[in-house]
Design a protein that fits this description.
The relative contact order is 0.18. Helix content is 27%, strand content 20%. The strands form 3 sheets. The chain has a 9-stranded mixed sheet, with helices on both faces. A 3-stranded antiparallel sheet has the order 1-12-11. The chain has a two-stranded antiparallel sheet with strand order 7-8. It is α/β, with parallel strands linked by helices and 384 residues long. The longest helix is centred in the last third of the chain and has 22 residues, at 336-357.
């Protein structure tokens, strides 16, 4: 298996580079799009794979005096509002930016930890580990982290310094080289090590006593979904030996816009050993398209189908885009964008509720509430 290209470099950060020339855009595609199929004809439009800038306006650390939500994930509301509000009141969560150093690898591992507000002494919180897409940061996907914390789920967003927003700084003419480095196998493996290190640090920190080590899940978008798959059992072989990437403390996975493994026509041998419950989230227009490369929305479905284990669910939103799941507003439709975000975070909560608490009604109620947004909903047997 070639993990060098088992990555999708799309992230919420490329918008700042939209003014690069078309020739540089084509070179970017050649150097960075590991999760896409090579096309014989060059696309004339960047489409939704255009570089998108990260949203760094997430609220800072703030604690409120509101009554604490239960430590177990709550069930989804019974009826959908007429509009979608992505914001989360700052009084309901805390956001802590922590700057850790992995001395063994001489690598910084910045994180943002979202916690429920007003529950400084409450133990036993479920934990979600989140990995961003290429060019992202710990402040991205705040709509998910802040919401989960407001509902009693801790969320640790890990920043991968070899493939984070730092790619977009510096000489624009060396951008292609930076992106090529970020797509190398060494960085793919470092991202896995980042998440494992961050988990170790969190559990050993002052916040560790608040976390239930038996209720840990991992999630990621795009490149981060690949990182998550490697953490939960995707097989990587070198010299006939399977690399020890599996993190056994992770009990569930949420894969958003998961790209295929480049150069691998048969995903089953790679993903069949993933046995933990998994939730796959995508959209019918979740297309990766840049000059010279193309990955159809159906590729996300192939990842779902190849995933091992009987406990896997799939949600496919009608319309949307690859970047609709980032913090960036408007992509995939001005009206649809916030609705998909709200539905995504409530689905994630209901899934964690099912896995860690055993409640089934949350997923059924979620489908009843958001079914009109879906092209396909396929829960695992026993989930509803």
């Amino acid at each position: 298996m070639r993990t060098t290209e088992a990555l999708d470099p799309l992230s919420p950060s490329c918008q700042t580079r939209r003014r690069l020339s078309l020739s540089m855009g084509a070179a970017l595609a050649l150097g960075a799009l590991g999760g896409c199929k090579l096309e014989t004809e060059t696309s004339a439009a960047l489409g939704e794979a255009r570089a998108l800038s990260p949203h760094d306006a997430a609220s800072g650390a703030s604690a409120g005096s509101a009554s604490a939500p239960a430590s177990a994930p709550a069930s989804a509301p019974a009826s959908a509002p007429a509009f979608a509000d992505v914001s989360v009141p700052s009084r309901l969560y805390q956001a802590h930016d922590l700057d850790w150093q992995d001395l063994m690898r001489q690598r910084a591992v910045p994180v943002r930890l979202y916690l429920p507000a007003g529950r400084a002494e409450a133990p036993g919180l479920p934990l979600l580990l989140f990995s961003h897409g290429l060019g992202g940061s710990r402040r991205g996907y705040s709509y998910l982290g802040a919401y989960l914390a407001s509902q009693g789920v801790a969320s640790l967003h890990v920043q991968h310094v070899g493939s984070d927003r730092g790619l977009w700084t510096g000489n624009p003419f060396s951008l292609v080289g930076r992106l090529q480095d970020a797509a190398k196998e060494s960085e793919a493996l470092n991202r896995v090590a980042d998440v494992r290190f961050a988990l170790d640090q969190l559990l050993a920190s002052e916040f560790g006593e608040r976390i239930d080590p038996q209720r840990i899940a991992a999630a990621g978008h795009s490149y981060g979904a690949n990182t998550t798959m490697l953490l939960v059992g995707a097989r990587v072989q070198r010299q006939g030996q399977v690399l020890p990437l599996l993190e056994p403390r992770i009990k569930a996975a949420i894969l958003i816009s998961a790209p295929p493994f480049y150069g691998e026509s048969d995903l089953a041998p790679i993903l069949q050993d993933v046995r933990i419950p998994s939730l796959h989230i995508t959209a019918t227009q979740d297309v990766i398209q840049v000059p010279g490369y193309y990955s159809a929305a159906e590729d996300r479905i192939k990842v779902f189908e190849a995933m091992g284990g009987p406990s896997k669910a799939l949600a496919v939103f009608e319309g949307g885009s690859h970047s609709i799941f980032t913090d960036r507003s408007g992509t995939g439709g001005v009206s649809l964008n916030p609705k998909v975000k709200v539905a995504t975070r409530e689905l994630s909560l209901a899934f964690l509720d099912h896995v860690f608490v055993g409640r089934k009604e949350g997923l059924s109620r979620w489908n009843a509430r958001y079914g009109a947004l879906l092209q396909r909903w396929q829960p695992a047997a026993g989930m509803v």
